[in-house]
Amino acid sequence: MVRSILLRGFDQKIAERIEEHMVNQRISFLRPFVLTKVEKIQEGSPGKLRVTALSSDGKETFEGEFNTVLLAIGREACTRNIGLDHVGVKYNPRTGKVLVDEEDRTNVGHIFAIGDVQKGRLDLTPVAVQAGRLLARRLYGRQRTKCDYINVPTMLFTSMEYGACGVSEERASQMYGEENIEVYHSNFWPLEWTVPGRDKYACYAKVICHIPDSERVVGVHVLGPNAGEIVQGFAVALRCGLTKEQLDSTIGIHPVCAEVLTDLTVTQRASGATVVKGTC
Ligand SMILES: NC(=O)C1=CN([C@@H]2O[C@H](COP(=O)(O)OP(=O)(O)OC[C@H]3O[C@@H](n4cnc5c(N)ncnc54)[C@H](OP(=O)(O)O)[C@@H]3O)[C@@H](O)[C@H]2O)C=CC1
């Protein structure tokens, strides 16, 4: 059950591919719906639960019986009772999230906030750890390095793994203008999928470049086996200012999936359709 869109904040074209892959695996999506009631109708392990939901426009209801109900609906920051009003720190009253600048400073100069309490940042543990480490060094170690909140490698443990670093296509368009970004993309067919003849069009890679900045790579997205392992390495290159030319002049390892990123020639602008590259 999904309230609105899938994977808000992530690249929406990739989110659509993830949904398609899950639907092909016979996972049903009910959307846009919200849960209104869960009743235990049978004890046991597993017992039985009756679920009631309402469509987001309030016109349709859904009722079904399930063994397990899992809610993965984000989190709010528990900041309401820690005296922020008392010291004048600004926060979003609905979510409890605190407003900070690029140095993690709140509107009160000597008060900083890091981690999931920050408004508009990724709620990820490694990001919070890194931000805290760098803040301590800036405050007490005479260093100046700020946390890079843009080039954050992350992944989704969906049945088809999705790894990404940098911005989504939507965000790149907003930041730079659609005419200033080039999206290179391709499907790829992992070697180990060729013998069993698994889906040729499920795995996908795309690289988003900022044209006026020497086609600097601002986003890398990989949908396929071990996507997180692939993207972790490319994240270092993104942080170093990787350009498409540098990516093209990098020799790929044959026949691994990551090779596809060194050999992207088709742009989304030139052709909506993607080509499939095999790894053998
Ligand atoms: N991100 C991570 O790495 C990890 C996350 N988790 C846990 O997983 C859960 C989900 O996290 P994450 O995906 O990052 O959260 P997000 O905030 O990215 O996504 C939350 C999702 O829940 C929906 N939602 C929010 N409130 C409601 C509601 N009242 N009714 C119905 N749907 C709602 C949102 O819909 P909409 O788009 O419409 O707002 C959105 O799709 C959290 O409990 C988190 O602690 C655990 C481990 C790691």
UniProtKB/TrEMBL annotation:
Reaction it catalyzes: [thioredoxin]-dithiol + NADP(+) = [thioredoxin]-disulfide + NADPH + H(+); H2O2 + NADPH + H(+) = NADP(+) + 2 H2O
Pfam families: Pyr_redox_2 (PF07992), Pyr_redox_dim (PF02852)
UniProt keyword annotations, A-Z: Disulfide bond, FAD, Flavoprotein, NADP, Oxidoreductase, Redox-active center, Selenocysteine
Cited function: Reduces disulfideprotein thioredoxin (Trx) to its dithiol-containing form. Homodimeric flavoprotein involved in the regulation of cellular redox reactions, growth and differentiation. Contains a selenocysteine residue at the C-terminal active site that is essential for catalysis. Also has reductase activity on hydrogen peroxide (H2O2).
Broad enzyme group: oxidoreductase
SUPFAM superfamilies linked: FAD/NAD(P)-binding domain (SSF51905), FAD/NAD-linked reductases, dimerisation (C-terminal) domain (SSF55424)
Taxonomic path: Eukaryota, Metazoa, Chordata, Craniata, Vertebrata
UniProt GO cellular component terms: cytosol; mitochondrion
A GO biological process held by the record: glutathione metabolic process
Protein species of origin: Scleropages formosus
Domain FAD/NAD(P)-binding span(s) in chain numbering: 3-132
Gene symbol of the encoding locus: TXNRD1
Signal peptide: none
InterPro entries reported for this sequence: FAD/NAD-bd_sf, FAD/NAD-binding_dom, FAD/NAD-linked_Rdtase_dimer_sf, GSHR/TRXR-like, Pyr_nucl-diS_OxRdtase_dimer
Catalytic activity, EC: 1.11.1.2, 1.8.1.9
Name of this chain's protein: Thioredoxin reductase 1, cytoplasmic
Top-level taxonomic group: Eukaryota
Coiled-coil regions listed in the entry: none
Residue ranges occupied by any Pyridine nucleotide-disulphide oxidoreductase dimerisation domain in the UniProt entry: 152-263
GO MF terms, alphabetically ordered: flavin adenine dinucleotide binding; glutathione-disulfide reductase (NADPH) activity; NADPH peroxidase activity; thioredoxin-disulfide reductase (NADPH) activity
Cofactor(s) this protein cannot do without: FAD
Family as reported in the entry's similarity comment: Belongs to the class-I pyridine nucleotide-disulfide oxidoreductase family.
